[in-house]
Amino acid sequence: MTPLPLLLLRQPGTFWELVRAKRVGWPELLRLTLFIVFACAVYGAVLAGWRSPRLAAYVAIKLPMLFLATTALVSLFNWMLALLLGAGLRFRQTLAGVLGSMTVAAWILLSLTPVSLFFLLSGVPYSGNHDEVRYAHNSILVTHILAIACAGVAGNVVLFKGLRQVVSPRCSTFALFVTWVGMYAFVGCQMSWILRPFVGSPFYPVAFMRPDCLQRNFYEFVFTEVLPYLLTGGA
Fold it and tell me: Which range of residues forms the domain containing residue 64?
């Protein structure tokens, strides 16, 4: 049998047929999880490589933690919502759907790793005055946010198509999908804030987690500090 990560890359429809037939067991889910950990670790090492090798090692651990912790937090909610909407999904099928979507996203991140590495090596200065370094950091941060968002969109497209194959006809696939994605995005963004740094600010010491990790939130930071600074050209 083709390994499930490769099956999702080549024949996602076959994967969802296996999910519908309840033929995706715990060993298969573990293989998906291990692939996600590997892909996220590789991308995470590149993501923080501009700052320091030590932070690159930290993020190679933390990016898989982010994906898996978010999955753990939302899977039970997704399953209960599926029950309420009459989707007819068991918990293992729900988890298979979420991990399948994440596996596709992990493939995208893995494919973008050489591009991210080239971007860091060729166009990102670490030295310079305060404003130059801050602008470089914010540019890297937004670039990686967009890359991860694109990977997430690709995974969610596969998830939506798959749900149409496995969900009971009496359940609204669109309503289930939108709620699942909304919850995952909300929890994932805040988890990324708690587990920061990922890119690594040059104005803070390298650390596995910030001491103020439970203060403020992801949305406040992006919309009040990162985007305004970039839109004004670092002014």
Answer: 4-231
* Cβ proximity of 218 and 189 under 8 Å: yes
What are 132-189's pLDDT values in tens digits? 777 777 778 788 888 888 999 999 999 999 999 999 998 999 999 999 999 988 888 8
Distance CA 192, CA 136 (A): 20
Total domains in the chain come to 1
CA distance 1 to 23: 12
Distance CA 201, CA 184 (A): 26
| pTM for the whole structure | 0.87
Query: Would you state the structure tokens that stand for residue 16, as one six-digit string?
Result: 């969802």
Residue 88 DSSP label: -
In the predicted structure, residue 234 carries a pLDDT above the cut 60: no
